[in-house]
Amino acid sequence: MEKRNRRYKALIVLILAVGIIVKMYKFGVLMDQTQSDEMGSGYDAWCLLNYGVDRYGYSWPVYFINYGGGQNALYTYVCVPVIKILGYSRTAIRLPALLFSIVAGIFGTLLAGELVQDDSEEKRLPVQVVVAFLYAVSPYTFMASRLALESNLMFSCGTVFLYFLVKAYKSRKNIFYFLAGGFAGLVLYTYAIAYIVLPITLLLSIIYMIRQKRVSVINAIIFVVPLGILATPLILVQIVNYFGLESMQLGIFTITKLRSYRVGELGFDNFFLGIYQGLKSVLWYDGIGYNTNKYFFTFYPMSIPFFFYGLLVLIRRSLKRIKDQGTEKFLLFWFVGEIIAAGLMTAPNANRMNGIMIAVLYFTAVGIVETIGILKGNTRKVVSISLIASYVIYFSVFMYSYCTVIGFDRSTTTSMCPEAVEFINKDANLKDKVVATNIPPMFYAASALPSPDKIDEGGNYKDKEHYTCYSDLGYDSVRDYLYEVGGYNQIYLVYNPTEDEKLVFDELGAITKQFGYSFFLYYWEQ
Fold it and tell me: How far apart are CA 200 and CA 207, in angstroms?
């Protein structure tokens, strides 16, 4: 038995290692587009690193303004040291997403071991193997690890929080209560939906822990102190924006007033529809190409029945053992918080619901293990091999599709290319010319990297002497702008040009330089 357990542990390490290595393939290059929030996080991080303020001139905001409605702070702050070490690039901006995904995989597997009712390794390890396997091959974890969406950190930070909360409950050690409180506070900086999910989870957990007599006053104080310290600035942000107050300073940190306060996006008007849309987004497809894919789902189609069966198993266990000191209830509390949050949202999607993914992983793993456990003899072996083969085949087809089609999705029409701007600035013949592009001024700043004083109140790049957006001037095609306005005296940085636009520059003898898959720089030597 001990030899078998060692093999299980080695298998878990191997599966996680393969999953991590796969996520590194063409990292930073695919997804080819750059989502607008990625650009916002990266540019704010660059401004903080170089000027100590965000792009609007605010000193170390606890909640960023971004494009007006706000942006969660943790991802941007993690980007600062990464950009310091690696320089400013799309790869550097996306690296925290990969690192936090790795954290989610490791701690998700550890959490699964702590949640299983039976503490014996022969019961825990099979569930951990399946959780690690699902993490390694799932389309969702692969796609989310390659996109710098700050909200996606709720998955990893929520998983770490739950791990330390369960460890605190089981051991009653103060260090785990402190770590659980600290990560609970960090969860609040990952995504604003945590303002709903975390209080619900904590309320249910506190009631349960008190009933089980597993928490002391000292434990509670040690938990609350780091949570309170981290939560206070965000509470002040809500007060400032709810009552329409002006931005204020808390030491070097800014309590920001947003241009639009999005609390109105929450409500009970479509509660049950929101729950349905939320579950659809995290189990199937949310309609957003960089989040999910309708052909592969988040964890593949065959995972859905196992998810619901696993959920049913956990609910049944909890009801049967309502007085037992089980730990799976903590994940159910988190799941309940996420479901309520989905009901309150106007438009749930996979990244808005990303915190629920640890529950999806665990429930699915339990469903698979319980199903296989019911079977006997050769039937068990055949079903196990068939299931593994199904996931491996699906994963292989997904990876091929991602690298040939999905990774080139154009869900948004904006992107960034700081490498092109750097090339222009280093060329003495180009640096003083006007750059004509189809990237709007709000997004071009993430490529040009102007100092904050060159950004207007709307977040737009103000240097009109060296930049113009021809699409903002009413030109749908660079061809018309080239002939009517720009001529040979300007240089053209075109994102995702059509074949006709490429042909125009080729016919006019322009020098062409390509950056990545989608950016083309055209100019003439004069």
Answer: 11
